[in-house]
UniProtKB/TrEMBL annotation:
InterPro entries: Meiosis_Spo11, Meiotic_Spo11, Spo11/TopoVI_A, Spo11/TopoVI_A_N, Spo11/TopoVI_A_sf, TOPRIM_Topo6A/Spo11, WH-like_DNA-bd_sf. Its main location: nucleus. The active site is at 100 (o-(5'-phospho-dna)-tyrosine intermediate). Belongs to the TOP6A family. It comes from Daubentonia madagascariensis. This is DNA topoisomerase (ATP-hydrolyzing). Keywords: DNA-binding, Isomerase, Magnesium, Metal-binding, Nucleus, Topoisomerase.
Length: 358
């Protein structure tokens, strides 16, 4: 195709190739086996899609003649009128753009964000169909080329630099890659360190993505588009803490707030590559590098363990129980205790070569 692999020999990817074959054999890609309006908050879980809004759920009414909801009714009409003009003129605006059209009226950005989500849910259409775009914060690097809606050709193989995730994922076309896998990196600092270590070239061909913490809509849409287009394995690299697990779950299963758009956002085929709580003991990481779970961490972990999708992920549950029992968490940076480049030189290559994902 368009790229010549410069990384490991073909035999390195044997386990990855078998994993991909198993994903293609199971269209849902959601198995947990090891390799080898107010209505927006009412969700159900389906392992092939993720969290979805239930068909019969509690709703709330907003009336123009009610003192309690008159202002919100007016704001909804205001934004609907702006959406109408955007669609009629075939132009786009960001949520920030809409907020700045009348700061005094809207009060704060959160109000605008919530109303747009309510409208999207109410009309049962993706936000981009309303011609409203989100400002992207994510980055992408590695073996990928595509053409943006305006005809701009983008090449993500720039070595130590990354490309911003496009603001209109629906508009990108002609995606080309030879990548064997996609690696989602939780934190920007880790992503940048992997770029500095030339990871994309050493593990070529591959694609790296980061949402810089909790992913924005465009980063989630991009990961979904990569999966739908290429059906290559998608892995996550997150901290061994409840927050990292939560972020991984958003990519894989979605969030309650966006459950009405789960089909467009979730990738149930995603696997947890690291950092696994069991890796902490296996690698003999120093206790000085570990952090005690806070009360908030413990509450978050308990909440995740009670979620319906954890029942079909016994290996995930086991890892979370290890964390709960130890009452400790670890950041990916704890691996630097072993060596400064341990993550890119040893940890990730071994995980990818020998199937160390769940």
């Amino acid at each position: 195709m368009a790229f010549a692999p410069r990384g490991p020999e073909a035999s390195f990817f044997e386990v990855l190739d078998r994993h991909r074959a198993s994903l293609l054999a199971d269209p849902r890609g959601a198995g947990g086996e090891p390799p080898g309006g107010g209505s927006r908050l009412a969700s159900r879980f389906e392992d092939s899609v993720g969290l979805q809004m239930v068909s019969h759920c509690t709703t709330r009414k907003i009336k123009s003649d009610s003192p309690k909801s008159a202002k919100k009714f007016a704001l909804i009409l205001k934004i609907l009128s702006m959406i109408y003009k955007l669609v009629q003129s075939n132009t786009y605006a960001t949520k920030r753009d809409i907020y700045y059209t009348d700061i005094q009226l809207f009060g704060n950005q959160t109000i605008v964000d919530n109303i747009i989500s309510d409208i999207s849910c109410m009309l049962k259409v993706p936000r981009r169909s309303l011609h409203i775009l989100s400002t992207s914060k994510g980055l992408i690097a590695g073996n990928l080329r595509y053409i943006e809606e305006d005809g701009t050709k983008v090449n993500c193989t720039g070595g130590a630099t990354a490309v911003a995730v496009p603001s209109n994922i629906q508009g990108i076309r002609n995606l080309i890659t030879d990548a064997k896998f996609v690696l989602i990196v939780e934190k920007d600092a880790t992503f940048q360190r992997l770029l500095d270590d030339n990871f994309c070239n050493k593990m070529s061909p591959c694609i790296m993505v980061t949402g810089k913490g909790v992913p924005d809509l465009n980063t989630r849409l991009l990961v979904k588009k990569l999966w739908d287009t290429f059906h290559i394995p998608v892995f996550t690299l997150v901290d061994a803490d409840p927050h990292g697990i939560e972020i991984m779950c958003i990519y894989k299963y979605g969030s309650m707030s966006m459950s009405f758009e789960a089909h467009n956002l979730t990738v149930p085929a995603i696997r947890w590559l690291g950092l696994l709580p069991s890796d902490i003991k296996r690698l003999n990481i120093s206790k000085d590098s570990l952090i005690p779970l806070t009360k908030r961490d413990q509450m978050k972990l308990d909440s995740i363990l009670k979620r319906p999708y954890v029942t079909c992920q016994p290996f995930w549950r086991k890892e979370m129980e290890i964390m709960a029992d130890s009452k400790m968490k670890a950041e990916i940076q704890a691996l630097t205790f072993l060596s400064s480049d341990y993550l890119s030189r040893v940890y990730l290559p071994n995980k990818l070569r020998f199937g160390g994902w769940i």
